[in-house]
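User: Okay, second chain of the day. Same drill as before: sequence in, structure tokens out.
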Amino acid sequence: MLWRKQAKAPILRALYAKAQESVALPVPLESQAIATFRLTLTQHLELCRIRAELEETAHELLQSQLDYQILRSVPGVGPIIALTVLAEAGDLRRFRHERQFLKFCGLDLATSQSGAYRGRTQLSKRGNSRLRSALWMAARRATHMQENTFRQKFSRYLRSDPTNTDLRRKAYTACTAKMARTIYGLIKHQQFYRAYREDAIPEPGGRTRSHGPLRQAAAVA
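Assistant: Same drill. Structure tokens below.
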């Protein structure tokens, strides 16, 4: 994984040189392989163009709504994710508790049981799959950003074994559930996301001021 402050040019040159020695095979420019690659690249660029148009349209239509503005303040949530949440979930204030919203998303825990047999507890995945997928993508994006509580939660999960793929999957799932709880809390309390519970401005006497509910909705575990 390349970090933002790493020098990427030497790494990319080394990868390119290694590829020439291994999997990269020289083919003529007029070959069918190059034609297929160009076709795939053209399709990819067209999909990127369509997505950019959708993002612009969604932002123009929803930018005046407070719920959309709150969603956009959450790390990892762009115009398409915000549009999906509003379209699939509707008014989040209709849910009395965050557990109801988690169940609606299919992010609640369920245990399969039959007679004396009791299976392991896992996500039910019985809710809205499109909404769950959007929250998953937002959480994945947030964990790759700096200075937010999602990144901190993801790092805590992988602290014991960063190379464990099963643990990484569980970490992404936990961050997805955190994303759902955070979005619900912020919209319910009409507050914008802030990464930490406390401001950096100390009160007289050296104590740091806490905003209580304002921070609790944003920094929900």
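The chain is about 55% helix and 10% strand.

User: Thanks, on to the next one.
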